[in-house]
Amino acid sequence: MASIKVKFRPSTVADHEGTIYYQIIHERKVRQLLSDYKVYPSEWDESRSMVMTTQKSERKSFILSIRERIRWDVERLMKIDRKLDANGLTYTADDVIDEFARYSNEYSLFNFMQSMIVTLKQRNQLRTAETYKAALNSFKKFRINEDVMLDTITSDMMLSYESHLKHRGNTPNTISFYMRILRAVYNNAVDNEVIENRNPFRKVFTGAEKTIKRALNLTTIKKIKNLDLSLSPKTDFARDMFMMSFYLRGMSFIDMAYLRKTDLENGHMTYRRRKTGQQLTIEWTKEMQMILDKYPENPTRYLLPIITKEEGNQRRHARNVNESINHHLKKVAEKVGVLSPLTMYCARHSWASAAKAKGIPLSVISEGMGHDSEATTQIYLASLETSVVDKANALILKSL
Q1: pTM, full prediction
Q2: What does the buried/exposed string (b/e) look like for 232-245 if buried means 16 or more CB atoms within 10 Å of the residue's CB?
Q3: Do 34 and 21 contact (CB within 8 A), yes or no?
Q4: Which of 52, 56, 54 shows the shortest CA–CA distance to 70?
Q5: Is residue 72 part of a domain?
Q6: How many distinct structural domains can be found in the chain?
Q7: N or C of the chain: less Cβ packing under 10 Å?
Q8: How far apart are CA 182 and CA 119, in angstroms?
Q9: Cα–Cα distance, 328 to 166 (Å, whole number)
Q10: % the chain with pLDDT above 90
């Protein structure tokens, strides 16, 4: 086993900060590992081999943070040494230092999470990769771009992050969204035996708070449908895509964007949900065709005028179109007197709400929307005929 000690090297310049380093001795060979931590001689306790501070010191919080980092570094070095020793192979102090450097590069949260994002993209799990990227960017803002090692993530750090998000005006569900992603990354590192589980997320909110569903009643949907927006082409397009989503049983925007011309055959639209992979079939109605006929044929393989170029980042293009639509839906909301935010996602909630109002069974609604989160419902839905859902949809569209 190696001997690991914390040392202090004073600066050659008087009244300047010196450097903390680690002395590693193995089989009588001595090596030094420099840290990035710098303190004044008065802040170093030689007898205890540790940084020190006073209650009145202006650098108290800074010194305490360095003390914590030193503790984590030493713990990591000892863990690496134990692992190398347990392998039963000959190793040197240089091997301990090399492994420490590799660990610092690969197992910081930023680097580890970025590698997971790359893997998700390679698996074509693009939506999940985007959510991980959003969570990483949020945590980077909290850390002011200062990386953190996975094994130094604590419950206090997560509580501070939670407070940071609340201060920025994030809702409980948004906070939970970020926390659950970070927890998944952390658990991945635990599963791969990179770190030991310290349960740093045990004190923060990772649940789901009930929110007011953004559903519109059929009377409001009918008003939106009948608006004359001929003088505002972009707003007209936003309204049409909103109605198309509603007609298509609350189809998500990303699924609409990737509908192919070949998916429409013999009066039925058959597609797979990009979120779950579940295959759904929808009867193509005259209402859907009327919207499609309003616009020039898409020059690409896609049916709707959302992704209109084969080249480039199609998902980014679809996201930009979605943002533009949601922006113009604000104008639609104003015209029909809707006070709550109106987005494409409202069409999905509205179809479900309309179906419920018509007395359509929950199982039929779930089938129509492609839900697969309720196992008991799905067992029943496996034998449900598509025509049952189409009749339910026809009942709703007839009300418009």
Answers
A1: 0.59
A2: beebbbbbbbbbbb
A3: yes
A4: 52
A5: yes
A6: 3
A7: N
A8: 16
A9: 29
A10: 64
